[in-house]
Design goal:
Elements: H1 3-14, H2 17-25, E1 38-43, H3 63-74, E2 81-84, H4 86-94, E3 102-106, H5 128-133, E4 138-145, H6 152-168, E5 172-183, E6 186-190, H7 193-204, E7 213-217, H8 223-227, E8 234-237, H9 245-255, E9 261-266, H10 268-271, H11 278-290
Parallel strand pairs: 1-2, 1-9, 2-3, 3-4, 4-5, 5-7, 7-8, 8-9
Antiparallel strand pairs: 5-6
Helix pairs in contact: 2-4
Length: 300
């Protein structure tokens, strides 16, 4: 057992109230800094049964190693914060790693990867009430839109309700949409431009207001045409880099030129680079996000 895991387990076993105390004491910051961009680390994959990175099927299964990589990444300049499930947020809060960071709570992780109920993506993580109680800055939800599966509809309704509940508290609602389909009993995401921009239009309209809604989108072909479908601020999805991380980074660089794109949410690509240098991978991503710096004009 790593030193980090041993220390956290001791606190959890003997002083569970320390978690709420650490979250309440966390120093918050504005969502956007002076740059007008936002760079978050993604750490909610294990809750959906995804611990694979590249060719390693269990890369993210070691919690101590996972947390150490996150701590290293959060300390790098240009990193604004984290998007994670309650267990990870609480561990990092106990480690004192979330002060002056934006923290977004992951809400629906019930659609386990590869399960027969994958599209019935229940809210098994944060609720809007819990996001506010934990002193966080917003909530993130995943919505895969499959016209050939009825389980899309209850997830869609639940996401709309979450958008309303977060907006009522003035908190960001981050929606990650995919155009999906079910082939041979498995869910596949369609990353072509036309189905993606259709999904953007659907999720942009969820809830009774979009005032606090942000999108989290994969980089797809013809990204400029896809982004023309919305005025909502958008963060790029990192994803699993596979064998070619260079292509992933280049895609981010191109997309950051689009006005609606305000930053990046990335996890596996940066936390598990092929050369093992987390700091260097994070620094490279931060430099790409910085290319999206823009002077804002207030709309009156």
């Amino acid at each position: 057992m790593s030193e980090i895991v041993e220390r956290l387990t001791e606190i959890r076993a003997t002083r569970p109230r320390a978690i709420a105390e650490a979250l309440a004491a966390r120093k918050r910051r504005q969502l956007l800094g002076e740059s007008g961009t936002l760079f978050l680390l993604a750490a909610d994959h294990p809750a959906r049964g995804v611990v694979k990175v590249g060719n390693d099927p269990l890369a993210m299964a070691d919690r101590g190693d996972f947390l150490q990589r996150l701590v290293t990444a959060l300390e790098r300049p240009g990193v604004d914060g984290l998007m994670a499930t309650p267990d990870v947020v609480e561990d990092l809060a106990l480690l004192g790693a979330l002060d002056e960071r934006v923290v977004i709570g992951s809400m629906n992780r019930g659609g386990l990867a590869g399960s027969v109920f994958e599209l019935d993506d229940r809210f098994t993580g944060y609720t809007a009430e819990a996001v506010a109680a934990a002193n966080l800055d917003g909530g993130k939800m995943l919505l895969r839109i499959a016209d050939d599966d009825r389980d899309t509809l209850p997830t869609m309704v639940a996401c709309a309700e979450a958008v309303n509940a977060l907006a009522a508290r003035g908190l960001m609602a981050m929606i990650e949409p995919f155009a999906s389909r079910v082939l041979d009993g498995r869910v596949e995401n369609d990353l072509e431009p036309d189905p993606t921009l259709r999904a953007v239009g659907i999720v942009s309209a969820l809830g009774s207001t979009s005032a606090y809604t942000w999108l989290k989108l994969p980089v797809v072909p013809e990204m400029e045409r896809v982004m023309a479908a919305t005025t909502l601020p958008t963060l790029l999805l990192g994803g699993d880099p596979g064998a070619d991380a260079q292509e992933t980074f280049e895609g981010w660089k191109r997309a950051m030129r689009i006005p609606q794109v305000r930053g990046l949410v990335a996890g596996r690509t940066l936390l598990y680079p092929r050369d093992g240098d987390v700091a260097a991978a994070v620094d490279r991503a931060a430099s790409i996000v910085a290319t999206g710096v823009r002077h804002e004009t207030e709309v009156r």
